[in-house]
Amino acid sequence: MNRVALSNCNNGINGTEKLNRDSLPIAANLSIQEVTRNIQFYAHYKERQFTTRFTFNRLDWKIAYKGTWADKTLVDKEVELNITVDVDSTF
């Protein structure tokens, strides 16, 4: 299993801005296999949790299938990532 982390000295979150009561745009650093890139996504609040789902190009993080060129092209470039963050206090 590969390590996936939102990393930075500030818990990986570079910035947030409250959009409305149940939506929050987030900028963060996504680190996978020693490659870190800035990402931006919207998290939605419901029942004391923020959740989001987004896709990214696996080749931007050097995630590759080991095999022949034909094998590598058969694997989709897009990876879907689902994140859920539990909230301890009232938002």
UniProtKB/TrEMBL annotation:
Signal sequence residues: none
Residue span(s) of domain Lipid/polyisoprenoid-binding YceI-like: 25-85
Name listed for the protein in its UniProt record: Lipid/polyisoprenoid-binding YceI-like domain-containing protein
